[in-house]
């Protein structure tokens, strides 16, 4: 089901960790499965390992090199087309990974007036400190962060061998977050189509 445009909400699922042996894709597959079951959303998984972005930025006013343009070309249009984002993030040193910050910093208007939901994982804190840091950064980028999160505390004890959480409460949390995300995505897509977002 879409909104007045009749089009399902294009949702970019961003895998925030790039570590060898990372757990992130398990979590991303799980939430992408939830999105796939909904008629009002489609998912595009943006994996920063498959589409690495440079960490050296051009000087202000300087055109990026061809290599930088090519690398951005694998990510930027997908963020621009997204109506909503789900960021899947672990907690690194009480915050979110550097590769994810880099992906945020390479972009600006692609985030404007769009909603962002979070699925986090970590130790005792379940990645919630990473999420709270992301909220501050995304406010600077004119994004709207979703109140409810899905967070996996001591995630190693929660996921079964099938790559799904064993606690049914996780499915409830995913639905609540995605319901809020789609409400905002519909509202903001309609608003952007009526009136371009101006900064
Ligand atoms: C550099 C680094 C810092 C970490 N810092 C934290 C932390 O502050 N809090 C926490 O709960 N877990 C921390 N962890 C554990 C990670 O949450 C855990 O290793 C998780 O699997 C990382 O996600 P990934 O496997 O997708 O890379 C840290 C892991 C790494 C590699």
Automatic annotation (TrEMBL):
Superkingdom of this protein's organism: Bacteria
Membrane-crossing residue ranges in chain numbering: none
Matches recorded under Pfam families: FMN_red
InterPro entries the record matches: Flavoprotein-like_sf, FMN_Rdtase-like_dom, NAD(P)H-dep_reductase
Ranges of residues in domain NADPH-dependent FMN reductase-like: 10-155
Protein's UniProt name: NAD(P)H-dependent oxidoreductase
Source organism per UniProt: Streptomyces lannensis
């Amino acid at each position: 089901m879409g909104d007045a445009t009749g089009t399902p909400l294009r949702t970019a699922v961003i895998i925030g960790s790039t570590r060898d042996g990372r757990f992130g894709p398990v979590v991303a597959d799980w939430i992408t499965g939830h999105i796939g079951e909904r008629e009002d959303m489609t998912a595009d998984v943006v994996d920063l390992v498959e589409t690495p972005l440079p960490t050296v930025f051009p000087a202000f006013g300087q055109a990026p090199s061809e290599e930088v343009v090519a690398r951005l070309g694998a990510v930027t249009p997908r963020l621009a087309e997204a109506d909503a984002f789900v960021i899947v993030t672990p907690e690194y040193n009480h915050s979110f990974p550097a590769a994810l910050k880099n992906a945020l910093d390479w972009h600006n208007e692609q985030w404007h007036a769009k909603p962002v939901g979070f699925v986090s994982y970590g130790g005792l804190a379940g990645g919630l400190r990473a999420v709270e840091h992301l909220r501050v950064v995304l406010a600077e980028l004119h994004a709207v962060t979703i109140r409810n999160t899905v967070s996996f505390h001591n995630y190693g004890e929660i996921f079964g061998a099938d790559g799904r959480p064993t606690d049914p409460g996780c499915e409830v949390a995913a639905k609540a977050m995605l319901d809020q995300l789609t409400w905002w995505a519909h509202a903001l897509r309609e608003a952007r189509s009526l009136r371009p977002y101006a900064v």
